[in-house]
Design a protein that fits this description.
Blueprint (H helix, E strand, L loop, with lengths): L7 H6 L1 H16 L5 E5 L14 E6 L16 E2 L12 E7 L8 H11 E12 L17 H10 L2 E10 L1 H20 L4 H28 L12 E8 L7
Parallel strand pairs: 1-2, 1-4, 2-3, 4-5
Antiparallel strand pairs: 5-7, 6-7
Helix pairs in contact: 5-6
């Protein structure tokens, strides 16, 4: 979603977005007043209200044209994520949510973030582990595992403070069911006559189980299952070191 998830209905249908929003809100509240924050790949700048106590600035390439992101507010730095026109060691914190899968060289992006952050500055990342194709044609990676962060962040001069899941194996199953249902509906729209009627009747039989029962049942298992092996996405907080060997 390109807006904060606020209502119970929005939370039900956008669980991962709600989880990210709550995590960003908690991390933002920890930043000292006046901190210079960059929202990298900000899109609609939906997190702006959470940083009223900070100097909040935004970056985005602003080339995506589709329903998932609406650039409703001016972007401070319209540029490539690898060429942000800011001095070295100028930022106190960088938030980059659901962006790494949309850049061709995510490792180079982390290097750029290290350049921009002050020693002791905070880096906050979220990205999918399992996801459908989205924001085409700007979708280059299927997802990032905890091992990716544990290798690259220390290699590039960061200490990992936290890695947390957005949703475990149960949510992965729910997302897969929803994707299958959506593809079925799209295929059905191309049918005609009796075939379309039969498809619609069968699809209606599974609508309630797929959209209402499965999310309730499967998500409840996530508290007991291994999220590192399968989750919808990860949320990572890291601190920039002052004197690390770069790769």
């Amino acid at each position: 979603m390109d807006k904060l998830v606020e209502t119970r209905s929005e939370r039900f249908w956008n669980f991962e977005a709600w989880t990210r929003d709550q995590w960003v809100k908690a991390q933002a509240a920890k930043l000292p007043p006046g901190s210079w924050v960059l929202d990298a790949g900000a899109g609609a700048s939906k997190y702006r209200p959470l940083f009223s106590h900070c100097r909040y600035t935004t970056q985005d390439f602003c080339r995506y044209e589709g329903p998932l992101v609406q650039y409703t507010q001016p972007i401070d730095y319209v540029c490539d994520l690898l060429e942000i026109p800011l001095p070295d060691a100028s930022l106190d914190a960088i938030f980059c949510t659901e962006v790494l899968e949309h850049v061709t060289d995510p490792v180079a992006v982390i290097r750029e973030f290290r350049r921009l952050l002050k020693p002791g500055g905070m880096l906050f990342l979220t990205a999918p582990f399992n996801s459908d194709l989205h924001m085409a044609p700007y979708h280059y990676y299927a997802g990032f595992t905890a091992y990716w962060y544990r290798y690259w962040l220390p290699s590039l001069g960061f200490v990992i403070d936290e890695i947390a899941p957005q949703g475990g194996p149960g949510r992965v199953a729910v997302r897969s069911l929803h994707a299958c249902y959506g593809n079925w509906r799209a295929w059905e729209s191309k049918l005609r006559g009796v075939k379309r009627l039969l498809s619609s009747a069968c699809r209606m039989l599974v609508k309630i189980p797929v959209h209402y029962i499965a999310p309730w049942i499967l998500h409840s298992f996530d508290h007991h299952l291994d999220w590192e092996g399968s989750c919808t996405g990860l949320m990572v907080a890291a601190t920039r070191e002052s004197d690390s060997r770069l790769v």
